[in-house]
Each structure stands twice: as structure tokens, then as C-alpha cells.
Design a protein that fits this description.
- 33% of the residues lie in helices and 16% in strands.
- The chain is α/β, with parallel strands linked by helices and 352 residues long.
- The protein has a 7-stranded parallel sheet with strand order 3-2-1-4-5-6-7. A 6-stranded parallel sheet has the order 10-9-8-11-12-13, with helices on both faces.
- Helix 3 links the parallel strand 6 and strand 7.
- Helix 8 crosses helix 11.
- The chain starts with a strand and ends in a 9-residue tail after the last helix.
Length: 352
Amino acid sequence: MRILLWHVHGSWTDAFVRGSHEYLFPVLPGGGPWGLGRAGRDWPDSVREVALAHLDADAIDAVVLQRPEEIGEVAERLGRRPGGDLPAVFVEHNTPKVNFPFSRHPLADQDSIPVVHVTHFNKLAWDTGRAPSLVVEHGIPDPGHLYTGELPELGVVVNEPVRRGRVTGTDLLPAFAAVAPVHVFGMKTEGLAAAAGFETSRLRLRGDLKPRELHRELARCRVYVHPMRWTSLGLSLLEAMHLGMPVLALATTEAPRAVPAEAGTVSADVGELLHTARRLLANPEEARRRGTAAREAALARYSLGRFLADWDAVLAELRPRRLASRSPGDGEPASERQEEQILVPARERKSP
């Protein structure tokens, strides 16, 4: 299939584009949220940058939506309506931001575009009304068992911790820094010491590293800390588990499902997390053993192969609604004509 989508969540997309399809990413001269294209990512050759204004609308088999505004953008630019004559799914990456637990999803009042949640907690948290709703859990490319734990220090990966504050548990980091220095990886970490009240000597700002360098450097830290209060399930947590790191996580959103007891500690009691941090920092062999358990759990539930297979199943179910309403022609059952529309890429279809 030829699938149109925007570059919105890079880490999720890293996994999604490793499937067997062709992936089309709009690109604009200035980039920005509507035209990032590949953005320099090391993605397969099946990922292509396209100028939406010059794209043949009939060359698209499906669109994967990630922002409500994309529905109107596709309809205006391509003249095909997502969920109507263009098969579409909407990927919900986020937890509700307001009015939880009564948060109504933007697509709740329609039934032609399925809402695919990335975690079971998200599906539980959102009121999706009459929209079809399902879960495809995360899967990530395995970075390898890189853990050394040579530094008796703590690692955290978080983007924009100053702006996001309590959402990402930024206010909790100084308590962990009192136990051991904290390495903070991610985008826009400048000003973190002042914003969170860190002692400068206990904070290591590592910046936004390329994935391979990030994995190598993070794996040198003895313990991974996941202080997120209200995010779906940070892919950095799954990456740390794949690396073979023991993990400490707040017992919020999807973390209790993702992290088994033998992999570290998951608790809403920050004091309990700090206690475990001290123990693992002082006992590298226990840290290594728990990290191995974390890796085994991540490979079992969040493998790339399972993720891509689940998405293939979702995409195979999509049907353009305009075909469903047509009467059979030339003795050909409508159901068979729908099946042809699903399985045959648009560029290979014969014109009527």
C-alpha cells in the first residue's frame, strides 16, 4: 500500500515506516509541522518525500492521521475525504489533556475513521463515542543489549522538561539527584537546573543526541528513571528496557503494564523509588539482573515484528466507503471489488 502520513512523532514513526509498504511524507521548503518530510531520519528507501500540492490523489491507498486538522488538509489538498473515498485511521498518541475522565475525543462523533490508541490506558481514558476504537501497542527497533551500567548514576530521557513541568515529573528530579547525579537526555533541556532547583553539580545535561549515540551513552548509566506523570508511555522507557537497563517508574498511565516487578520498581510512592535507586546503585549485579529481565519483557511485548504485524492487520481492514455503496457490475460481487481496492496498490489499479 501507499500510505500518506505526516512526520509528527518521530520515535513512533521510526518503527511504523519499517513495514512492507510505501510511505509518503509531505515536505515544504520551510519544513515546519506540515512539511518536515524525513527530517534527516535514517529511514528505509520505501519512505519518500512528496509535495502535497503535486501529489496524484489517486496514487494513495490510505492516510494515517495523527492530528484532527489533517482531515481537512487532506480533503482540501487532494479532493478525497478521509474515511469516505480515502481509507483512513487516526493514531491517538496522547493522554487526554483536559476534563479527564470525561474527555471526549475529537473524532468521537463519527464512525468512518477508526481511532487507534498506542496504549490500553489511552483507550480507557478517552471517550471515543461511536468511533471504532482499538489498540496497537508500541513496538520499536531493537537497539541491542548495550547496557554496561558502568556509571553509578541515573539516566532520564525527556523532551522539553522545563516547559512540560509536572507532566513529565520534572519537579521530582532533584530528589533523585540527591541520591546520585542525573544525566538528562532530550530536546530543550536548557534552564532545567534553575527551573527544577537542581544543584548544578548533580545535573548532567546531555542534549538531543542521535539515536545510536543516545543508546550508547544512556546504557552507561546504572539505572533508568521514568518520572512521567501523564504521558501515554514514553518510548524512551521501552528503549531503556531494550538496552537492558533496570527501570524506576511512576505507577501512572501505562507504566504498570509495561514494567514487570522483576525489572525494577513501579510505584506512586517516590520514596520507594528512591530506596530502590540507592540499592541498585550500590549493587551493580542486581542492577544487571533486573535490566536483563526488563529487556526480556520489552522484547516479548514491544517487539518491532509484532507491532508491524498488528498494523498490517489494521490496514488490511480499511475500505473506501464509496465502493461499498456501488452496485455490482459485470457480474462481479461488490465484496470482491472492495477486496481488490484494499489489496491492490492504487498505482497498479486499472482505470474503470
